[in-house]
Amino acid sequence: MTPLTYNQKRLISKNVLAACKDINKLNNTGYKFLNLCSGFIAHYDLNGFKAYYSEHSLHDDIERFAKQNQWSNFREGERDYHYYMAKRDCYNMILGGFVAKQYMDEVFNSPVQFMRDHFTIVHIS
């Protein structure tokens, strides 16, 4: 199995983070990634997945299943090790997005307020 590239991991994590806010933003690539992660039940297809997570928290499930999606049972030199480590990296990029958002919300309260507090807007005519 071919490991995910950095660009693939970035695009998947960006899509999944957007889907945590609005499940309708989840694309087929993000769905396939999550569907193959431990803990996510079969929903038959992307639409079934979206239907389920329109009533449940995708964010909460991603956090809930984090430990089993570290693929720590694979060791260097084993078949498909790099594939599963790339999946782990992608999953952790998603978790990192949660942490970054929470930090920004706590520290800066809102980006607009942060800008007002730290920058002066000068109008030049």
Q: Cα distance, first to last residue? A: 59 Å
Q: Compute the CA-based radius of gyration.
A: 18 Å
Give start-end ranges of low-pLDDT stretches. Answer: none
DSSP helix fraction = 55-70%
General shape: globular
As for the number of domains, it is 1
Structural classification: mainly alpha
Total number of beta strands? 0
What is the tally of helical segments?
6
> Biggest β-sheet: count, sense, barrel?
none
Order of helices and strands: HHHHHH
Strand composition percent: under 5%
Average pLDDT taken over every residue = 87
Explain this structure:
With 125 residues, the chain is mainly alpha-helical. The protein contains six helices and no strands. It is globular. It has one domain. Helix content is 60%, strand content 0%.
Set out the fold topology.
Blueprint: H1 6-21, H2 28-35, H3 46-53, H4 58-64, H5 81-108, H6 111-118
What attributes characterize this protein structure?
single chain; 125 residues; mainly alpha; 6 helices; 60% helix; globular
